[in-house]
Amino acid sequence: MSASSIIAMLGGLLLLCSMTGCTLFQASRQCGISECAGDARITADVEARFEEHPSIQPPNNIMVSTLNGVVYLGGDVDSPSAKADAELVARETPGVTGVVNSIVGRQTE
């Protein structure tokens, strides 16, 4: 793995962690420590739909969280098409009002 790939992956993870922290803080103010019930259902539905799509299966690593119907995607995938597929699947999930896609694509050599 090249140094630029490692830096890109670490930058993406840092962004995800900061975004997830803000998301969790806002959710905890509204719903307590766990996600709001509707948001938890959306997260579970998105994750279940990901299992139906081979293009976004492991070794891709996608994390999902939801706040007020907006799905936040993070992690890393093997290709730009896997990133786009993950966003499309999330957008098509019932109850989703928006998607913030912070997934980082790994560069294959």
Structure overview:
The protein is of the alpha/beta class and 109 residues long. It has one domain. The protein contains three helices and four strands. Helix 3 links the parallel strand 2 and strand 3. The radius of gyration is 14 Å and the shape is globular.
| Main sheet characteristics | 4 strands, mixed
Count helical runs. Answer: 3
- Tell me the β content: 15-25%
Distance between the terminal alpha carbons, to the nearest Å?
A: 8 Å
State Rg: 14 Å
Poorly predicted runs of 5 or more residues: none
- Tell how many strands the DSSP assignment holds: 4
- Can you give the mean pLDDT? 82
What general outline do the C-alpha atoms trace? Answer: globular
Q: How much helical structure, as a percent, in the residues?
A: 40-55%
Order of helices and strands: HHEEHEE
Give the tally of structural domains: 1
Structural class: alpha/beta
Please tag this protein with its features.
4-stranded mixed beta sheet; single chain; globular; alpha/beta; 109 residues; 50% helix
